[in-house]
Structure formats: structure tokens, C-alpha cells
Design brief:
Helix 3 runs antiparallel to helix 4. Helix 2 links the parallel strand 2 and strand 3. This protein has a five-stranded parallel β-sheet with strand order 6-3-2-1-12. It has a three-stranded parallel β-sheet with strand order 7-9-11, with no helix packed on it. 40% of the residues lie in helices and 11% in strands. The chain contains 14 helices and twelve strands. It is α/β, with parallel strands linked by helices.
Length: 361
């Protein structure tokens, strides 16, 4: 049975404490961070070990490209999605082809090391947000929709389910919800006609959504991830979306309005989330696991749709990825387009910038 919690682990190999948490009934997922990664073989061994202790578990990662990439050493570099948007302004057809290639390339290398899914793509508009920026494809909804649909086609072709974030849009809010409360005071009509459009228009390609830790004050006084209005009334009933709803990390500052971590987990699940993420806080993970015992299990059929098509390990990343028919071509296309000298100066600078999703409690 897949449980309602997704937690993290300490390092590059499981500790006894990690194992005790993974074996708890309501732990249904593990999310990996850069601290859990040295190289491809180590990640695959770690994922295989996790599944030895809990066969019904999803393993996820944030492998968006650009600054947000947990898998780096030995993996093919991916551009920030904003660079696809820049290319789209100059050559739309080429940008759309590259978006497909990025989705396929990312998914195949993530699956190869035993990870089910990357929480991607970002469907937020590029606006004033301190944390979104070039994680977004573009500022125009039509461009985001076109590029994101191609990116998700690539992901699905490689065997990975898709997760759109951060519903209904984080790009118009300056504060970073990782470290501060974020409030959007626009009307529901304005949000639905702008920021929400990339989500609504790509629903056929979406297997999961992750709501933002943003309070849309004209709609509800709770962050979207704790709001029955957003999750049940709008996502489930109005948009008729039947995919998985992942909470964003409940350790983020934007989630603390709901109370302690036990209250946050309960609030997220009761509002309509299927799985609640609790990361970067081991004490909170233990508290969340205890609180989750009182909660019902999520819809198992729905959760299973997120399981990746993980190939047999062939001893190294390249040999394993050769099992994906289009991996080599996608890799060459992306490398030639965005990294023609392995890492051009712009790409190198982009990858060296601080990860906007890194934060301390």
C-alpha cells in the first residue's frame, strides 16, 4: 500500500533511522536531494536499497534543468526552461523540438538510476517571483503551454509521468514561499485568465499537480495546498482533473500558517492532496509519520500511475540509457543547441547560480 507521506533521507546511503521511517506504513514516497547524490551508480544502488525495504514507494527528485538539478555528476546538463523560451522567441519550431528532447533526455536519465519521477514541468509564468525566474518557460501563456506540452510528450515517451507545478501559478508573487508567506490579492477571474491557463490547457498531458504555498486572498484565506476551494472545487470538479495531487514541501515557510507539521499534513490531505511532502526536517518527518497513521490511505490506482518505467541497470548510466531508443539523439540535440563547447559560459554561469529551491529551516 502506498502511504500519504513523501519524506527525504540523510545522505548517499540509508541509515538505520532512514530504514525505520521508510518501513512505516504511511510513508509512500522518498524525495532525493543533492546531498543524496554522488554519481549515477550510487543513486541506482540507493534506489534499489530503498525498494528492498519498501516495495510500494515512489522515488522522486527535482530535475528541472538549469539551477534546479539534483543529478549533476555524470548526467547530461539540461538548460533552464527559460532558455527554451528565449529560443522560442527566435525559432519556435526548433524550440518545440528541443522541449521534447529535454523532456525525453531528463526522464530517461532519471529513470535509468531508479527514480520514478521528476517533479516537472514548472508551469508558472515568468513574472516577478523571486524563486521562479528562468525555471519558467516564458511569460506568455501560449508559449508556456506549447513548450510544456512538448516537454511532457518527451517525458511520457521515455516512460515518466508528469507533474505540473505550482498550481494555480507562483510567478506573479514576489516573495519566495520557501522562506516567507506569499499572498496574491488578485481576483479569481484574473488568476484563471492568466496564470492558471498553462495548467488548464495542458491537462491532457498532466498526471499530477503540485499546488503553490501561496494564499490567493480573494479566493481563500489558506494557501492553495490547504484549500478545498482550489483542490476540490476548482481542480477536481471544475477542471475535472483526476490525477495525483502532491503537496509542496510542508516544511516551507509558506506552509507554516497551517500549524505544526502534524496539523499541516492533516490539513493538506483533508483539503484534497493525495501525498504530503515533508522534507529537510527529520524531527518533523517523525512527527508527520505518527500523525499520518490516523489518515486514510490515498487512492492506490491513482498513485500507481506515477510509477516510472525503470529499465534494468547495465552497470553504468550510458549503457542503461542506451535502452531508451531516442536518448542518444536527444542528448546530442540538447548538447549541440545549448552546450556546444560542453558548457558554454552562459550555461556554466547558470548552473553555478544558487539553487532557488534550497533553503534552511
Amino acid at each position: 500500500m502506498y502511504g500519504v507521506l513523501m519524506i527525504d533521507i540523510d545522505s548517499t546511503a540509508l541509515t538505520a533511522e532512514d530504514v525505520s521511517l521508510i518501513r512505516q506504513a504511511q510513508v509512500g514516497g522518498i524525495i532525493l536531494f543533492a546531498r543524496n547524490v554522488t554519481d549515477a551508480a550510487q543513486v541506482r544502488a540507493l534506489c534499489d536499497d530503498i525498494r528492498c525495504h519498501n516495495a510500494d514507494i515512489l522515488i522522486g527528485v527535482d530535475q528541472e534543468g538549469g539551477r534546479v538539478a539534483r543529478l549533476r555528476n555524470g548526467f547530461t546538463p539540461l538548460p533552464a526552461m527559460g532558455r527554451l523560451g528565449e529560443l522560442f522567441n527566435q525559432d519556435p519550431n526548433r524550440a518545440l523540438d528541443c522541449a521534447y528532447d529535454c523532456g525525453y533526455l531528463m526522464a530517461s536519465e532519471v529513470l535509468a538510476v531508479g527514480i520514478d519521477l521528476s517533479f516537472a514541468p514548472v508551469l508558472d509564468r515568468d513574472g516577478i517571483s523571486q524563486v521562479i525566474g528562468d525555471r519558467s518557460f516564458h511569460h506568455e501563456t501560449q508559449a508556456i503551454t506549447a513548450l510544456a506540452a512538448q516537454f511532457m510528450r518527451g517525458m511520457k515517451a521515455a516512460g515518466m509521468a508528469t507533474t505540473g507545478k505550482h498550481f494555480p501559478g507562483h510567478g506573479a508573487i514576489a516573495p519566495d514561499s520557501h522562506v516567507a508567506e506569499a499572498i496574491d490579492d488578485r481576483s479569481l477571474d484574473e488568476i484563471m485568465n492568466s496564470d492558471m491557463q498553462p495548467f488548464a490547457q495542458t491537462l491532457p498531458w498532466l498526471d499530477a499537480l503540485m499546488p503553490a504555498h501561496v494564499i490567493f486572498s480573494q479566493v481563500d484565506n489558506k494557501p492553495a495546498g490547504f484549500s478545498k476551494i482550489w483542490l476540490k472545487d476548482i481542480i477536481r470538479e471544475q477542471l475535472n482533473f483526476d490525477g495525483v495531487l502532491f503537496s509542496d514541501d510542508l516544511s516551507m515557510a509558506g506552509a507554516k500558517a497551517a500549524g505544526d507539521v502534524s496539523a499541516r499534513v492533516k490539513a493538506a490531505i483533508e483539503a484534497g492532496c493525495d501525498i504530503a511532502l515533508v522534507c529537510n526536517d527529520r524531527v518533523a518527518a517523525h512527527e508527520a509519520a505518527k500523525a499520518a497513521q490516523e489518515l486514510p490511505y490515498p487512492n492506490q490506482k491513482r498513485i500507481k500511475t506515477m510509477c516510472g518505467q525503470i529499465p534494468a541497470w547495465q552497470g553504468n548510466l550510458e549503457s542503461t540509457c542506451q535502452q531508451f531508443d531516442y536518448w542518444q539523439q536527444a542528448k546530442e540535440n540538447i548538447s549541440q543547441t545549448f552546450f556546444p563547447t560542453q558548457l558554454d559560459s552562459k550555461a556554466s554561469a547558470n548552473l553555478e547560480l544558487k539553487d532557488p529551491t534550497s533553503y534552511s529551516q
